[in-house]
Amino acid sequence: MRLYLGIDVGATWTRALLIDEVGRVINRVKIKTSANPVEDVAKAVAGWPFDAVGVGSIGPLDLKTGWVVNAPNSPSRRFPLVEPLKRFGKPIAVANDCVAAVWGEYVFRHPVENLVYVTLSTGVGIGAIVNGVLLLGKDGNAHELGHAVIDFRSRRRCGCNGRGHLEAFVGGANMPGFYQEVTGEPPIEPAEIFRRYRQGHERAREFVELWLDALAAGVATIAAAYDPELLLIGGSVALNNWDIIAGKLPERLKEYLGVREPAIAQASFGDDEVAIGAAALAHHTPETLRKFGYPK
Q1: Phi-psi category of residue 137: left, alpha or beta, with phi > 0 → left and psi -120 to 50 → alpha
Q2: DSSP state of 216
Q3: How far apart (Å, rounded) are the C-alpha atoms in residues 251 and 271?
Q4: pLDDT band at 189, cuts 50/70/90?
Q5: SS3 168
Q6: pTM assigned to the model
Q7: Which of 91, 171, 186, 256 could be 167's S-S partner, Cβ–Cβ 3.0 to 4.6 Å?
Q8: In sequence order, what are the beta bridge partners of 25?
Q9: Which CATH superfamily is domain 4-104+271-290 in?
Q10: 199: burial class by Cβ within 10 Å (0-12, 13-18, 19+)?
Q11: Tens digit of pLDDT for each residue in 6-41?
Q12: Cross-strand pairs, 12
């Protein structure tokens, strides 16, 4: 039985999973993200047996060199993804975190030809497969629709400093400020916003209704870009509030869609989504990634 190491490099935490050929988790480790997170993982898994390794990382990336080149929320804006793993002498595959996630869904759960993964967490990220092809772009960053403009008149800015972006309205890091702007109340964290919503707090309900409209506009933009059969949503904001999203998003989406609506479902792997996707890159490396010289 072949085993695969999957590494998820996030802005706050870095996870590694050892999985088998059908995606079952054999072992795991979780480490606070440092300035050189893959080096830390390489040390932590030194005794693990595996046949190949994949990495799904925050970006933006330069796939040709195997580096993260300008990560805004990481302890280090630049760090290597490939070099620390060469000591193992195993094949290495690397991609953006949401690209890895959609590939993991495709390999292990949903083998449909047109598939999109959306993460709603601190920010908003996208991974897409169109007609069976994993989309990457010239450097591996062809999936930044969290920065699609959904309101060109808005003065709201997201972390990239762009105005009117989807992430500026629905990303977890921006929700406290957006809540203050909408309600006139002090900013509060997403978990508290949704807690108050469920309790019937008038201002929280007003805000969440507007947030859902922004999410529907963004999902409609994503659907227009990729025309998916199935659109999966993950990330902490979505997973912790799936009852609200599943109950209200599909109907609102009809107001914004210009293409046939996709099926919408919750992502499959919870907190393991990116790490399992990274292992899937090693298990079954997509052809578009091979054009960048992977597996290395």
Answers
A1: left
A2: H
A3: 27
A4: very high
A5: helix
A6: 0.94
A7: 171
A8: 19
A9: ATPase, nucleotide binding domain (3.30.420.40)
A10: exposed
A11: 999 998 899 999 999 999 999 999 999 999 999 999
A12: none
